[in-house]
Amino acid sequence: MQSRRRFFFSGAAALAALAAASRWRPLAAAPAENAAPGESFDITRTDAQWRESLTPAQYAVLRHEGTERPYSSPLNDEHRAGVFACAGCRLDLFASRTKFDSHTGWPSFWAPLDHAVATREDRSFGVSRTEVHCRRCGGHLGHVFDDGPRPTGLRYCMNGVAMTFTPAAT
Q: What is the model's pLDDT at position 27?
């Protein structure tokens, strides 16, 4: 019985450490400001206006840096030609031709559209990563990592709930 209890608690501790290291936060994440000191965005709204214009899941991710569950977004399986845009302000972010299956559970791209996203250092949970946000409204989109495919070698790992998809006209 003692070994079962020890196994359970060591497994729970390992899971908590993994969640902290990967910065997986459920959609009910703690509030965070989207603008860093000295940073401003073309589109600004009050917290109440953001709440009114976004779904609860979009609000949690875009405005409070939450993370959707892996494999929960329909955009992860979107393979048509088109454009992925910010769910907060509708700015086009990624062309479908740059999307690839990273097997992480989140829509991934090897490059954003020109002047679509901005980045900043994210030191939450004691881990240094690069956060990606919408250049126009500051909405949190996800993170970028240096383990992607050619030609950039980057993996823009985005929350699907933070984006919309518009298929290309045929």
A: 46
> Between the CA of residue 58 and those of 42, 52, 116, 119, what are the distances in Å?
19, 11, 18, 19
Contacts of 47 (CB under 8 A, 6+ apart): 63
Question: Are the CB atoms for 31 and 124 separated by under 8 Å?
Answer: no
pLDDT at residue 115, as a whole number: 96
DSSP secondary structure string, 54-89? S-HHHHHHHHH---PPTT--GGGG--SSEEEEETTT
Nearest-angstrom CA–CA distance, 145 and 57: 24
Q: What is the pTM of this model?
A: 0.79
Q: What is the mean pLDDT of the chain?
A: 84
pLDDT of residue 103: 96
| pLDDT reported for residue 12 | 43
Residue 10 has φ and ψ, to the nearest 5°, of -70, -35
Catalytic residues: 157
What's the Rg (C-alpha) of the chain?
17
Set out the domains of the chain in order of their start, with CATH numbers: 43-167 (2.170.150.20)
Q: Give 29's DSSP letter.
A: P
Query: Which is nearest to 67 in space by CA: 37, 97, 95, 107?
Result: 107
